[in-house]
Write a structure and sequence with these properties.
Helices cover 16% and strands 24% of the residues.
């Protein structure tokens, strides 16, 4: 069994704030949703190093953080293909009665946690370091809607 994707929620009309955080501050690449699902709103993101992720975020990405030049979104993985061969995929879904997730959260493993923390802070999002997970450095942040997101990196060499 493998994890296909993780989903967080946003309120109706909250896609731009999601793009500013997940695309701008975190540097994930927005991918096209399948047409049957696109009408529901929301946005899908994939790690930039995924085999079929575009090198640039979608044209509607709004962020003060440095990002690649705007381009059209990359296509989603074909049905049944999983999340780009196992790479990180994160979906932001629209929830009518939205409440931010303050406890439940995705935890994203990164190579250079200090660089990620710097980008997140530069984009205006909080960074709260937590030293209580043995063998890892980690911090918590919140996306543009207040959903908790954990960023972590193993201590020591690679």
């Amino acid at each position: 069994m493998k994890l296909h994707h993780v989903q967080v929620s946003c309120p109706p009309g909250g896609e731009e704030a999601a793009r500013a955080f997940y695309g701008g501050a975190l540097g994930l690449v927005e991918v096209d949703k399948p047409p049957a699902l696109a009408a529901r709103g929301g946005a899908w993101f994939r790690a930039p190093d995924a085999p079929d992720a575009s090198a640039a975020p979608a044209a509607s990405t709004a962020s003060a953080a440095p990002a690649a030049p705007a381009a059209s979104a990359a296509p989603a993985a074909p049905d049944g293909a999983g999340s780009a061969g196992g790479a990180l995929e994160l979906h932001v879904g629209v929830e009518q009665d939205f409440r931010p997730a303050r406890k439940a959260h995705p935890a994203l493993l990164v190579a250079d946690i200090d660089a990620v923390a710097d980008r997140i802070e530069a984009a205006g999002f909080p960074v709260e370091w937590d030293p209580h997970y043995p063998g890892h450095r980690r911090f918590y942040t919140a996306d543009g809607h207040g959903n908790r997101v954990e960023i972590l990196s193993p201590d020591g060499p690679g």
